[in-house]
Amino acid sequence: MRIIVRIVLVLAALLCAGAPALATPAVIDETTGRKIDELLAVRAESPGLSRPDLIERLSARLLGTPYGANMLVGSATTAEELVVDLRRVDCFTFLDYIDAASRATDRGRFLDELVANRYIDSRVEFTQRKHFFTDWAARERVAATDITATLSPAALTTTKHLNAKADGSTYLPGVPVLDRAVTHIPSEAVDAAVLAGLRTGDYLGAYTPAAGLDVTHVGIIVTTPTGPVFRNASSLAQTYRVVDTPLADYLRTVPGIVVLRPL
Length: 263
Hints:
Elements: E1 5-10, H1 12-16, E2 23-28, H2 30-44, H3 51-60, H4 91-103, H5 107-118, H6 135-138, E3 144-146, H7 148-151, E4 156-162, E5 178-186, H8 192-197, E6 203-207, E7 215-222, E8 229-233, E9 242-246, H9 247-251, E10 256-262
Antiparallel strand pairs: 1-2, 3-10, 4-5, 5-10, 6-7, 6-10, 7-8, 8-9
Helix pairs in contact: 3-4, 4-5
């Protein structure tokens, strides 16, 4: 029988800053609780490991985790919930959980870090959710640096009107349109020099030229003796789980890449 544990998360950082207290209940099922504890144990067993290598080791523990679409709950008309569910993950929640685990030492800290990753200024609200990959490098709390432009002279920068569809409507009603310069490297320009600049633990997004979006999929770079792989929560019917995809194969399916390096 599944045991449901209700945890009330109090954001101490907000209290220290003098902001209003925010208590957010998070329901953690038994499987998710066990996986969080496994991730925390990996971190505890690796005190001298660099953060990139820690991200690789933690993410390896989620290989094979089933894919789940649209895992988060909230909209302009539905109250935002703090979802913590490692029974299945989508590509964004996969990154959320791994990044949080790489910074945490216990469950309480894990939840604090998860909220800081997922929400601007740790405010658990739909309008404050980091809906776009590049938010991780642009919105508080900044979790990564966008290094795309440094990897290749072929990098291109496009001003995107994030959340604005070509027909003038929005992907996410209630979320303002945000103008942002998004830099990507076209897939055909990802040469040996670019690959040499990638590191294990880098976060990679699949750039899209579509109006209103920066990327369509995200994952983690892992360097191996046979070349880099793209560790990702795949929605492809033949996989539908967290897998390692040879980066060279993945590049043939996307227009380009955006690379963020965790801080």
